[in-house]
Q: What sequence folds into this?
């Protein structure tokens, strides 16, 4: 039995306070007792608190004997008993020393006695410290076992082997990166689900080495503070869920703080709280623990690097939050008696964990101005099974087919640039290209984009490009590669001939033009001057009989191409510019 009475008498006699080590031990004893009682109750009762049948109880006890079931509990109590016994001895010896120092004449210790007593006290303190360290180590091991994080560092090692030295430095030299690392904003996001100033989002198409960039970012940020990371992998169990990431991040942040008794106590408390039979804690509890771990690392700024977030599957709750935030903006698109919650449930099922699908559906419902409220409701209620992105793209494609011919031509022109341009055009450069092609379309685009966005136009996801190219046969947006390169070539050359001045680009004879000033005045000039010949080379001029009409330039376009080239070569002033 624990010698609590002896401890209480010592505290009362000498007006002492229990040590932090003993307080922690007492807390753990109560945790173990409650855990023991909960286990016993589960043997005799069901989840609804009704009694189990006697035969079921006997079978359950027979399957796993009492000794085996509660061996761990008994082992833990033995550890705490050892702590209490050593605490009693330490208090007794410590008080003896203090009394010996104050009593004069009645008890005089010689030098050898004092040395022996000091050695005894030192041994006791060492034993208590060792016992406390053993308790911390055990708590740390149990916390790691409970987290059961997958081999998250394997992807890091693979990326390190693939990276070429001195690559990916461009990211760390950008102004946006320097602005981000110097940000210490404590403001919450402007609305739930939205990135705040503390988040740097680097995105790109598949195959553009984002994983290598993530690895390089981890190495760079290690020089600035504590870094934890996770690499999502869609096709690998244990690496494709939000809980997998939480456990890996917690494991990385717990290890450097394994000697923090307060943190370990919080882990043990959450580990043993009622979970309704689940093996792991709730998302809320895991996030609370992660926030606590990060807040304790105050000496250095904590960073978290996540790779492949789009490959995370367990995000239906986040999609619901996103839809709940967006649907109030669509109220006018539905009748007043519409059950918006029911519609959100259908869309969550249709999204099946894909944020892009949910985003496109909201844009589709908001942008399709010709749809009636009942048609919008019908579209959503018809979604009874999880959909693919291709289903969403097909829905958008069907909508485009119903538009006017001019609208389809305008959309096809934009997509031609997205598919076949050498580099992504800025917003202003795209406006310039549209102005050469159609004045009416330019006015429409100018209304849609009022800001100058340096990032410009690009597909929202690589799968959009794959869908357009794969469905070329019945796709109103598809243009053959030959016609596409011809269209871009024609726009570039006409732009040079009509927009370039007949004198020096600087406006001053003998003085070189400033590139930034030229791009401000003529946004498409750089692309047109550098790439018109490249697009011309991709236009197949052969008209042999064994080629179909989709594999060579039409006679009309061929004539126009020659006329453009002759006109361009005859403009001496432009050639000199």
A:
């Amino acid at each position: 039995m624990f010698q609590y009475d002896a401890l209480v008498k010592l505290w009362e006699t000498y007006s002492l306070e229990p040590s932090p080590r003993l307080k922690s031990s007492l807390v753990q004893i109560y945790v173990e007792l409650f855990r023991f009682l909960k286990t016993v109750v589960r043997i005799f009762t069901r989840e609804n608190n009704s009694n189990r049948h006697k035969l079921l109880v006997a079978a359950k006890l027979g399957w796993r004997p009492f000794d085996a079931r509660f061996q761990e509990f008994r082992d833990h109590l033995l550890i705490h008993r050892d702590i209490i016994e050593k605490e009693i001895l330490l208090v007794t010896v410590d008080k003896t020393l203090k009394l010996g120092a104050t009593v004069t004449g009645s008890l005089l210790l010689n030098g050898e006695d004092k040395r022996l007593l000091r050695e005894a006290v030192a041994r006791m303190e060492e034993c208590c410290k060792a016992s406390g360290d053993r308790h911390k180590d055990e708590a740390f091991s149990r916390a790691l076992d409970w987290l059961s994080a997958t081999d998250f560092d394997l992807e890091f090692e693979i990326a390190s082997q693939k990276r070429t030295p001195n690559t990916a430095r461009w990211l760390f030299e950008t102004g946006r990166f320097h602005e981000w690392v110097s940000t210490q904003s404590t403001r919450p996001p402007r609305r739930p689900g939205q990135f705040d100033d503390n988040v740097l989002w680097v995105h790109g198409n598949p195959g553009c080495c984002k994983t290598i960039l993530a690895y390089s970012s981890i190495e760079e940020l290690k020089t600035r503070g504590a870094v934890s990371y996770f690499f999502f992998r869609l096709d690998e169990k244990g690496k494709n869920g939000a809980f997998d990431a939480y456990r890996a991040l917690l494991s990385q942040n717990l290890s450097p703080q394994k000697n923090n008794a307060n943190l370990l106590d919080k882990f043990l408390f959450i580990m043993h709280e009622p979970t309704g039979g689940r093996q792991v804690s709730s998302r809320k509890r895991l996030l609370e623990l992660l926030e606590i771990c990060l807040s304790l690392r105050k000496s250095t700024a904590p960073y978290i690097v996540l790779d492949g977030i789009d490959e995370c599957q367990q995000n239906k709750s986040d999609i619901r939050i996103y839809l709940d935030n967006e649907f109030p903006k669509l109220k006018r698109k539905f009748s007043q008696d519409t059950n918006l919650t029911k519609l959100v449930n259908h869309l969550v099922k249709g999204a099946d964990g894909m944020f892009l699908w949910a985003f496109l559906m909201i844009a589709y419902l908001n942008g399709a101005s010709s749809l009636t409220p009942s048609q919008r409701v019908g579209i959503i209620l018809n979604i009874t099974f999880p959909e693919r992105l291709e289903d969403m793209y097909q829905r958008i494609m069907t909508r485009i087919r119903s538009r006017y011919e001019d609208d389809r031509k305008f959309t096809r022109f934009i997509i031609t640039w997205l598919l076949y341009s050498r580099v992504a055009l800025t917003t202003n450069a795209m406006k310039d290209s549209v102005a050469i092609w159609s004045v009416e379309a330019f006015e429409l685009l100018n209304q849609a984009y009022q800001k100058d966005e340096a990032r410009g136009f690009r597909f929202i996801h690589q799968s959009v490009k794959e869908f357009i190219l794969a469905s070329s046969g019945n796709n109103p947006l598809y243009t053959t590669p030959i016609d596409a390169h011809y269209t871009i070539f024609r726009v570039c050359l006409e732009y040079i001939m009509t927009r370039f001045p007949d004198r020096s680009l600087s406006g001053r004879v003998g003085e070189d033009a400033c590139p930034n000033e030229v791009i401000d005045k003529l946004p498409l000039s750089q692309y047109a001057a550098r790439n018109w010949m490249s697009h011309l080379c991709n236009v197949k001029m052969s008209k042999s009989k064994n080629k179909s009409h989709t594999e060579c330039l039409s006679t009309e376009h061929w004539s126009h191409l020659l006329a453009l080239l002759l006109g361009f070569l005859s403009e001496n002033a432009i050639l000199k510019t």
About this structure: The longest strand covers residues 227-231.
